[in-house]
Design a protein that fits this description.
Strand 12 (279-286) and strand 13 form a beta hairpin. Mean pLDDT is 91; it is low at 1-5. It is built from 11 helices and 13 strands. The protein has helices at residues 17-28, 34-49, 53-57, 66-80, 85-89, 110-122, 140-148, 161-174, 219-222, 239-251, 267-276, and strands spanning 5-7, 10-12, 91-94, 97-100, 130-134, 153-158, 179-182, 199-204, 209-210, 231-232, 252-261, 279-286, 292-299. The longest helix is centred in the N-terminal third of the chain and has 16 residues, at 34-49. It folds into 2 domains: 5-81, no CATH class; 102-299, Rossmann fold (3-Layer(aba) Sandwich), CATH 3.40.50.150. The termini are far apart. Strands 7-6-5-8-11-13-12 form a 7-stranded mixed β-sheet, sandwiched between helices. It has a two-stranded antiparallel ribbon with strand order 1-2.
Amino acid sequence: MDFCIKIENMFVQSNTIKAIKRYFKEKLETLFSDSEIKLIVNQAICSRLNLTKADLILADEMRLSESDLLYFRSVVKRLQENEPMQYVFGETVFYDLEIKCDQRALIPRPETEELVDWIIQDFNSRKMDKILDLCTGTGCIALALKNQFSETKIQALEFSSEAITLARENAEALNLEIELIEMDVFAEFTDFNFEPNSYDVWVSNPPYIPLAEKALMHSNVLDFEPEIALFVANDQALIFYKEIAFKAFKYLKSGGSLYFELNENFADETSKLISDLGFEAIEIKLDLQGKKRMLKAIKKED
């Protein structure tokens, strides 16, 4: 006999995983493709019930508790309100690491994985002493690099105390040791014992979206992700790049590398700015969507 539970205005025809899959499809089909819905519901079920993907194949008739049904209802409701899936589930995968994410920091994105991969490919067989990640957010860049370069000292700098706390939670959960520094990139680095000419790599995914572009952005970004990590003044689109590159020239080793994630609309201007500051061998790289998304520059050899 089918089991019917009424929860406010929601009816589930049976308390089975099969019914939950149907419910997700009915409620979300105007927002997501069929393949996206399948990924979402599978993640929700596996996460909630501690099932593997293999378990899920044969679990359609598995019975669920009322608290489980309430959970799945809340997931659907939050997705209907355009909350990003990563915040709904509280995590995302970044360079094979499970990164906790919530509204304290930006959601790690695939193009940032591409930036990390560029660094890893460049230094695959080279020893590094120190790396600094600026505007670290969740800590995803620093943690992915530490996971690859276990012997390298990794520092991660962030202005937001809430984001620093989140990055620390990620580092502890992943058992990866990075040094977290709560600090504004515009502060005097001499006050924090940074050593000139000592870093192999500086990397940053800074705020780079002019406020004028805000009207063009989706509500799932504007309503949930922290504005401090997204936007810059319209007349200061390169302010973070200029400040970071200026300092990087002092603190990078001779021949050290500077990496940025870019606003595609200002890629060429950023390249010129960094060249004017004394960097050479500047390279702009396209992301998988063909956008000018990454930049690498080298501090001139002495």
